[in-house]
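chain below, 85 aa
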Amino acid sequence: MDYAKEVHEKLLAKNIRAHLDDKSETLGSKIRDAQKEKVPYIAVVGGKEAESRSVAARSRAGTQEVLPLDAFVDKIVKEIAEKKL
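prediction:
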């Protein structure tokens, strides 16, 4: 959970709207809820991601890619600047 908080804080520091879902529900349930809310990106972080300092990013379109944390943040900042989000 510490790494998830770090990811959340890094996004907020770049003025990116972010929500940390720390409820005790299953991952599938959390992803389903985010998809219903039409969240542009779902950043999934677990032990593997924390170890490699990365983020498993799921887009609204359903594609998933694993990116280093800084690359993910830069991607979001760039998309916001280009008004894609």
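Residues 69-81 form the longest helix (13 residues). Strands lie at 41-44, 54-59, 64-68.
thats it, cya
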